[in-house]
Amino acid sequence: MLDKQILDNEGTWLELTDTKLNVGAVYDWATLASCGAVVVFSGTVRDHADGRVNVTSLTYEAYDDQVISKLKLITEEMRLRWSDLGRIALIHRVGELLVSESSVLVAVSSPHRADSFSAAQFAIDTLKLTIPIWKQEHWKDGSDWGTNSQDISSIKKNKPAETSSF
Fold first, then answer.
1. Is residue 165 part of a domain?
2. For residue 164, is it within any domain?
3. Separation CA 9–CA 155 (nearest Å)
4. Which of 28, 92, 102, 129 could form a disulfide with 21 if both were Cys (CB 3.0 to 4.6 A apart)?
5. Burial classification of residue 129, based on how many CB atoms lie within 10 Å of its CB (0-12 exposed, 13-18 middle, 19 or more buried)
6. 166 inside domain
7. 163: pLDDT confidence band, cut at 50, 70 and 90?
8. Could you give the 3-state DSSP secondary structure of residue 34?
9. Is residue 16 part of a domain?
10. Rounded mean pLDDT of 15-38?
């Protein structure tokens, strides 16, 4: 069983795991009395991909030794860009996942919703650009690596999502 996890005193939960993700537990953990907003993003396995129909499952593989340290860099950058964030959770699952299962969770709490939304979008976008995790898609007649893979880039290169007034 794989479970690399960091829960720190600053309110950061980072995890790479092969167990089912519990969206409700992450939401409950992120909720704080000082924060009026909690944004939770759950990326789920869908039944299709670019040019592929009837996807039945995905298998995620990770460069385990690098994931947590890279996730930590993302949260450090988030706290620099949005100074009043409460709790941040960045959790990714590895192994085989069936359609509709959560593969990644991002949770961000803050006093106001605009910061939570912007920080959560920055987190998932940056995670997808910088974390060494790859997916293999499985369908009725075969399997292959995901069609949307890209080179891993620097966290600093990802621009924050444009802030709107929510």
1. no
2. no
3. 23
4. 102
5. middle
6. no
7. very low
8. coil
9. yes
10. 98
| Length of the chain in terms of residues written | 166
Structure-token pair, residue 127: 């995670």
Q: Find how far residue 73's CA is from the centre of its chain.
A: 13
Contact (Cβ atoms closer than 8 angstroms) between residue 123 and residue 30:
no
Q: Is 79 helix (H, G, I), strand (E, B) or coil?
A: helix
Q: What distance in Å separates the CA atoms of residue 29 and residue 41, rounded to the nearest whole number?
A: 14
Q: Do residues 30 and 95 touch, judged by C-beta distance below 8 A?
A: no
| Domain of residue 27, residue span | 3-157
Q: How far is CA 60 from the centre of its chain?
A: 13
CATH number of the domain that residue 127 is part of:
3.90.1170.40
Q: How many domains does the chain have?
A: 1
Question: How far is residue 1's CA from residue 28's CA, in Å, rounded to a whole number?
Answer: 25
Name the percent of the chain in helix, strand, coil, to the closest 5: 30, 35, 35
Give me 113's structure tokens: 């919703």
